[in-house]
Amino acid sequence: MNHEQSRELYDRALSVMPGGVNSSVRAVRPYPFFVQKGDGGHVVDADGNRYIDYVMGYGPLLLGHDMPESVQSAVQQRAAEGPMYGAPTEVEVELAEFVARHVPSVEMTRFVNSGTEATVSAVRLARGYTGRDKIVVMQSGYHGAQESTLVEGEGDHTSPSSPGIPESFAEHTLTIPFNDREAAHDVFAEHGDDIAAVLTEPILGNYGIVHPVEGFHETLEQLCDDHGSLLVFDEVITGFRVGGLQCAQGKFDIDPDITTFGKIVGGGFPVGAIGGKSELIEQFTPAGSVFQSGTFSGHPVTMAAGLETLRYAAENDVYSHVNGLAERLRSGLQDILEDRAPEYTVVGTDSMFKVIFTREAPDSFEGHCEAGCTQRTDCPRYDHCPKNGHDVKRAETERWERLFWPAMKERGVFLTANQFESQFVCDAHTDEDIEETLEAYKAAL
Ligand code: PLP
């Protein structure tokens, strides 16, 4: 493959943008390819090379790169009529109604412009509502580039995970391992009266893919109820992907107080949202007193793209298509691994998948998995599935950079540059794409 154009663009980018990119995960060694355009389930780079795309914009593109006619015309019409106004529009109401109709715990929604903005506002809302400062997050969970959740450490021994964040932010953030019910009980026993919220991804998608074990989310729900704390489900990745239109909370039958969304709900345009019971969401200004505002929030082009994308998914067999293809991919990969690299593990559910470089049994776990995929309790591979971020961390290896990223890319398959971020199957992928991908994995391995 020729990458001359990408290399040149990267050289130019390096002199005007830090690291040559606008989001850190896009920087790969020796240089990323620059995309010229998307095409269905594929992308074409600046040198004309074509790749089957499983990055899918890091999650927003449920339907792939070719927007269906209904999405395209709604977006074009909105853009043509003046992109935004600083006054409300009908399409915002329609999207909020759609979300309330389908997501079990949501009655009201405030739209913002990114997943980060959504989690920042959710934490402020929880603190404002409860009058408490502390939040609990999962070790190796990710909630965007926000001060309160960029922490490392265990329990109440936490510190900021990036320079530039005052220590005092981390003082209010407690961490527990995902899937550890005992740690959840312990943190509430010690700090229960000060905890405003527990913030968790339903499935760890940025350091994973890790599924909840049976009873874990229920334990968080109960502890929050008992202590007057709020359970915040960060469904930025899982929203409108895992569990279809009901999201992961519908699939796992959990009733969070607040849900954060991003990615798919904007149909490929910048978006975030905070949803929940009216009593809570109405704490936001101007209905309530927790300050929340944004020039671009509820942007008409984004709202139209999100609404038409979700309507399309509701009216077509999008979820059975993407989930079916992903299941074929996961089980095909499992067969290849069994044959060629039995020390590796396939993880994922619905339309998410990943190969991680470990098969060590987790040392931290008892219980049952709710994944309903290759990680079923009756699955012979079950013991090898990661149960928390620590299990995943043990799989860290430069093999990802050496083998999958370059080897798969050269075979025409675009995987995430970060070895722990989820990859996604989209509606535009085909049986042939899956076969070609499996062949590429086989050759790469
Ligand atoms: N929360 C989760 C679970 C995410 O996966 C992400 C981003 O990947 C975010 C929040 C932040 O979203 P954004 O990148 O749109 O700010």
Automatic annotation (TrEMBL):
Its needed co-factors are:
pyridoxal 5'-phosphate
Task: Fetch the PROSITE patterns from UniProt.
Answer: AA_TRANSFER_CLASS_3 (PS00600)
The EC number(s) attached to this protein equal 5.4.3.8
Q: Which reaction does it catalyse?
A: (S)-4-amino-5-oxopentanoate = 5-aminolevulinate
User: What keywords appear on the UniProt entry?
Assistant: Cytoplasm, Isomerase, Porphyrin biosynthesis, Pyridoxal phosphate
**Claim: GTP-binding is one of the keywords in the record:** no
| Recorded superkingdom | Archaea
CDD domains recorded for this chain? OAT_like (cd00610)
Q: Specify the pathway.
A: Porphyrin-containing compound metabolism; protoporphyrin-IX biosynthesis; 5-aminolevulinate from L-glutamyl-tRNA(Glu): step 2/2
Give the protein family.
Belongs to the class-III pyridoxal-phosphate-dependent aminotransferase family. HemL subfamily.
**Identification of the protein by name:** Glutamate-1-semialdehyde 2,1-aminomutase
Source organism of the structure: Haloarcula onubensis
Gene giving rise to this polypeptide: hemL
